[in-house]
Amino acid sequence: MMHRVSRDHRESYGWLGGRAGQTRLGWSALVLACVFGALAFVSAVPFDARMCAVMSSACLNLFIVVFGTRLLAARAPAGEPVSKTAFRLLRLAFQRNSEAADMRGLLQSLPWQGWIAPLGALVSLAFAISAWTSPAFAPSATQRESAPFLVAGAVALVIAFAALVAERFHAQRGVQSRESAALAGLLRVVLVAALSMAASVAALAYAGEPLTWLVRVIALLSGVIAVELGLRALLAALAKPDEGRFLHSTVAGVLSVQARPVAAFNAQLRMRYGIDLRQNWALQSFVRLLPGALVAMVVAGWLLGGVTILGPDQRAVYERFGAPVAVWQPGLHAGLPWPFGRARVIDNGAVHQLIVSGSANDSSSAAPPVSADGDTPAQLNRLWDVTHPWETTQVIAGTSGAQQAFQIVSADVRLDYRVGLTDAAARASLYRAVDMDATVRSIANREVVRYLASRTLPSLLDTPQTAMAGALRGAVQHELDRLASGIEVVAVVIESVHPPAGAAAAYHGVQAAQIRAQASVVQAHGFAAAALGQAQQQAIATVALGSANAADTLAAARAQQIGFDADVIAQQLGGPAFGFEYYLHSLQKGLKNASVTVIDDRLASGSRATIDLRTFSPAAAAGVKKAW
Question: Model pTM greater than 0.85?
């Protein structure tokens, strides 16, 4: 009998029992709220920080219930106005001979105790709103396999177990104590928040997708409880101090579950129908064999953890006792269960594209998907006078006349890569590259900068993009092979290489001037060629005409020379008759088309002169009678 009394006394006043137990519980909740609240605003946390905000809000609600009630009950009775007390404090602060005891007494007289709980409720509500509005966390493949995920899940389970123990302790005493009933309800909220945090960490680690709906449900629950506690604390602060008042949450009390439903069901069967399940042999056998069956199911599930099913787009590096022993291809494979064996899944030929010219944390897509009849996205505008997203600006060498200068060029470069298809490439990509995207982007950025810096702007604009892409692809692949990364560069895509958008108009003007100058030079060359052709044509025609005239004159002279020589020979042979005949022939030719007037003194005045121009042969001419 004494042993039972001692046990009841120890259970009632243990680590969680009594006023001291509630104090420990409140301070523990405050410490957890501060820790999780600080983690909620740390951007470098490698897991979902929204669950930290939810845990901080739930722990703050528990702290408000424990210490808010005590502070409300410990308020000093109403004295002088707060403004008068504040004025006296300000006057004592500027007096050199003021005593600390006076200031301490004035501070204690201020009614600050009643406002701690409403302020704590506001902070808890702020954490719940932050968890609702914060963006989702998307971990990379490397972060999903890191130790912080395992630590966060373990911490969440430990907190859930501690909250369960405390909840069971206060739930058993909830009938006799309303303080324990209120604490049990809020401990259930902490328990649900901790289990939700563990589930969210598990979903991120294995599926890579955050449970946003679960985070918002718990944030909504904690926020509603914070609003309820804040209103209750505000009303209590405005009311008279009452030591019997204890803050509680009706919303948290709804989470209570009726204990031992099987016992209640057995009691109903025994009372109504006379059936006692405790005397049933089948049920007793089931209860006796249930632990063994559960253990067998757990062992079978653990052994089935060594079975891996890989899809067509997956491969896996199988590790046995931490050492890689094989590369599994798509299909069904069996190995040792965790932690003795592990299959690390990697891509099987999947092509990844990254923006080389963007920032190191830029993982956006090149252009959002649009419908066939939708407007063209602004990212697809390739005009020089438009600033394109994910472009890099590089200062390169240039020339200004005969002097060296600097020029600016903008480039948008994309790179497609994949993990090599060989087993050695699969191992290398898994163990030699911590973050493949960051590694490839860093090397590609360095090679793009080196390529642009070694050329001038006109040479970059004149070089075909296919040649530029081929040179960059070879340089990046060479560096990746030198590092033995197991990554294969599929293609380098040059979206655009041009001067900056701000200088596009000036550059277009320079290009137009160059084109006009070149056109003027070509036109002048054409005019000169035409004039030269015409001059050559005229010269050739003049030379040809002179040559023809000279030939005609020479031929006529030769003909005359030949005729003269013939006349000389005829004169020598024919004598005076030839000369007279030549004279008559010339006279006939000269008078052929001439108007002739013959004057002869032998012509009578009344007769008409007659000139006989007939031609007779020598025989006929002998018989013609002369006219005179």
Answer: no
